[in-house]
Prior knowledge:
This protein has helices at residues 3-10, 25-28, 33-40, 51-60, 71-79, 83-97, 102-116, and strands at 15-18, 44-48, 63-66. The chain is mostly helical. The radius of gyration is 16 Å and the shape is globular.
Amino acid sequence: MAFDRMIPEANKADIGLFVQSGDSVQKRFTLPNKFFEYIQARLALCVADLPEMAGLVERYDLGVLAKTHSPPDIAAAIRALTPERIAHHKAKAAQAADQLNWETESERLIAAYAQAIGGIRVSS
């Protein structure tokens, strides 16, 4: 699928699912592009209860966390998403999409780089 079609196509769904094990440091602290694509598509999220994803899901009220990557835990998390909760989390994703995007985050990254190199001002 062409990159510019991914978010509009994902928007046809209700739930974005990304559940993996946290059996390595890389996986435990993952924050994949797919996570942000689901937010931009205004989906309710069902993701692994791993620190980075869980922190954003809880902060912005984006969905539910699967306790582990086992099929029973994933099923339990999905079953917790009633139609009303899905609508609620989709609305929260729409609000979060205004903050969790490259345009907003790039300003923070540029500021961090500027501070790291001695306070030089960098404009975007």
